[in-house]
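Complex 374.
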Amino acid sequence: LTLTKEDVIHSIVIGAVPEWLGIGLQNRVHRFDSGRHLHLKIFKLFMHQKATTAYANANIALVKYWGKCDHALNIPAVSSLSMTLKDFGTTVSITKASELSVWIDGKICSQEVHHRVNDFLEKTRLIHAFSGTLNIASTSSVPYASGLASSAAFYAALATALNDYCAWGLSPQKLSTLARMGSASAARSIFPGFVGLYGGLHTNHDQAHAFPLKDHPDLDVAMLIAVVNTRPKAISSRNAMNLTQSTSPFFKAFVETHHQDFADAIAAIKTSSFERLGSIMEHSTLKMFATMMTAQPAIFYWQEQTMALINFVYKIRQDLGPIAYFTMDAGPQVKILTKKNHAEAIMSMIEELGLTQHLYRTSIGEGASIVDST
Ligand code: DP6
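Predicted structure with DP6 bound:
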């Protein structure tokens, strides 16, 4: 068997290395490397050309973004607020290629994703100088398209990698406006901790950026992620929010009542009021789902395990006090905000329920960063 240099790179990037070769290489990579460096090391090994790898954590919205006031620039209809997660994200490596190729967890992406990435790059070119085509390879600890903010981590890492690759020198604020054009939630993943993102009718491209809030140490929160189903969702968050916005009679009320949620959540963080923050998060979540359920046709992401976990959180509050609050996004998974000192006990209780495929514990994490650049 004769492999050319390109064959080996291609095989490794798509994860289709023949078994005899793959076992050896992958084991070595995993023994000596964290995995985040995998793509770049391989590129470096075989090719002497510019390559950049960036990493971004996913984030979970506490005050939800849902709907757009500018579809072309992807400007949200409302301001939102999130928590960047710890060690729960996506690594993206980019290098030059003869045509755009996008790999997700070792597999070439779907046409839909390819089209969306291409669209993002075309919009980026209108604002920042950059020519040529790219090979984009991503690996993720976030199951793809299952309502776990995978697009947020992906576009935040991609924008961060592009900024380095093209030497634009963008500030984090500008970087977040760039990431927003890929996926609005991605704008928030540029920053660490609790993060706000401006949106709304009179917000232009430059104003629709994310910003970090000063964390209050007393909040000391953990986020539990109860995965009840990892199958890709039937309708993407983008399509779901467009359908909701154009057909739900409740969408207007969601937008109109949003300013208060945003302002209250910022105040709750500043005053370290966990109970207040949790209540606002549940309220914003349920208002978002109310608009989905009243879209035509109705959109239902919840499954019976989702409802069981919501009831479980209510029961915890009834029995133990205000120590846990739920949120969900465009998918059936339930995220539970709690204090670090209660996290372990709540995790054991969830495990006993036998409702989840995976249960993760995370907390407040860092913003997007460059892993390597050569
Ligand atoms: C329910 O950011 O995925 O997670 O901008 O169209 O890519 P696009 O949408 P996306 O929507 C996220 C919606 C949400 C709530 C949130 O993260 O604020």
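Residues 113 and 272 are 39 Å apart (CA to CA).
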